[in-house]
Automatic annotation (TrEMBL):
Pathway it works in: Protein modification; protein lipoylation via endogenous pathway; protein N(6)-(lipoyl)lysine from octanoyl-[acyl-carrier-protein]
Domain of life per record: Bacteria
Sequence ranges assigned to domain BPL/LPL catalytic in this UniProt record: 33-248
UniProt xrefs under InterPro entries: aa-tRNA-synth_II/BPL/LPL, BPL_LPL_catalytic, LipM, Octanoyltrans_LipM/LipL
Pfam families named among the record's database cross-references: LplA-B_cat
UniProt site positions, description: Lowers pKa of active site Cys: 165
EC number: 2.3.1.181
Name of the coding gene: lipM
Catalytic residues (positions): 150 (acyl-thioester intermediate)
Protein name: Octanoyltransferase LipM
Amino acid sequence: MEKEQWYYINSGKCSPSYNMALDECLLNWQSTGAMPATIRFYEWEVPTLSIGYFQRVEKEIDMEEVEKRGFGFVRRQTGGRSVLHDRELTYSVIVSENHPKMPKTVTEAYRVISQGLLEGFRALGLNAYFAVPKTEQEREDLKNPRSAVCFDAPSWYEIVVEGRKIAGSAQTRQRGVILQHGSIPLEIDLDTLYDLFLFPNKRLKERMKNMFSSKAVAINELTDQTFTIEQLIEAFRVGFEKGMEIELVPYELTGEQREEVERLAKEKYESEEWNYRK
């Protein structure tokens, strides 16, 4: 039986504003029927802190430190907590809410989409499995996270290896379209990551940092082999095809589409009104 064809876009390294603008444009194009379901892989021109739609910059982020290090900064249109995008592969999945493979609930849609991630990690030789919070306390922790840092704890159907979270994802539904994107880290610099956040005191910061290392892990910590971004791209391209039972067809944006993305990047994702909104 012929598999359904989805578009596949490998954007390479882009600016923070362009990365977020392209994800939003793909959602918009999907909503009007201008594009089929799409899977995109991308990287970041500079290490970038992205924050969730509902996060408050002045309460959680040390912007002086972000700027001092020359890092990028951008607010996502998805929820969730902050992610430092550095030495990682980022993915996005854009698909209609009415697609026959897509469950109606956010949690179950995570499960379907994350099957592609699961197969990608397995293609790298990692014994990955889904996180399913079992106790009442674990479920409560998801509603009330201890810190502003993503990877602090796994959510429903996020990917875990050896008991530690290895991919962080966030999802939004707008205009009848699901956008899920997430971070697949090769390495995590814990000291740099925690220097970007505000804490009441140093003792709490150190405690949170120690807790993080017991709950999250990057790919290259788990194997004797040092993987490259190129190897990740191939593993997860194959993983999404297998996990979601689709065929990925490479797609290049038209000049008109690139102009639309660049316009949105400048007008929205480079604006203080969006990035520092209350």
